[in-house]
Amino acid sequence: MQGLFESGRIVDLALVFVVLEVVALLALRRRRGRGLNPAAIATLLAPGVCLFLALRAALTGAPWPVLAGWLTAALITHVLDLWARWRASDRPQ
Q1: What are the entry keywords (predicted)?
Q2: How far, in Å, CA of 2 to CA of 87, rounded?
Q3: What tens digit of pLDDT does each residue of 1-15 get?
Q4: Cα separation of 4 and 47, whole Å?
Q5: Is 75 helix (H, G, I), strand (E, B) or coil?
Q6: CA 43: distance to chain centroid?
Q7: CA distance 29 to 36
C-alpha cells in the first residue's frame, strides 16, 4: 500500500474511478434520455481531476511549477463550473 502512495499510482486508481463515473453518467443519459450533458459532466468533474493530478505531482516530487499549474487549472475549471451553473440558474423555468 505504501508503494501505491509513494509512486502516485493511488491517484491513477482514483482517476480510473472518475472515468468509470463518466461512462456511467453518459450511459444513464443515453438510456433514460435525460441527465447531465457531456459538457456539464466535464465541468463538474474537471476541477477534481485537476486536484487529483496536483496530488499526484506532490506525491511523486514533481517540480513546484507542475503542482502550481494543476492547482491553477483546478481553480479555473472550478470557476467555469460555477459560471455555468450560475447561468443555468438564471434561465427562466
Answers
A1: Membrane, Transmembrane, Transmembrane helix
A2: 44
A3: 888 888 999 999 999
A4: 23
A5: helix
A6: 8
A7: 7
Residue with cell 460555477: 82
**∠ CA(61), CA(47), CA(79), 5° rounding?**
125
Output the pLDDT for position 70.
98
| The three three-digit cell numbers of residue 84, written as one number | 455555468
Sign for the CA dihedral angle at 88, 39, 45, 17 comes to: positive
CB neighbour list of residue 44: distance below 8 Å, 6 or more residues apart: 36, 81
Q: Cell numbers of 14, please?
A: 482514483
State how far the Cα of 47 lies from the Cα of 20, in Å rounded to an integer: 17
Cell of 52: 487529483
Q: Residue 34 carries which DSSP code?
A: -
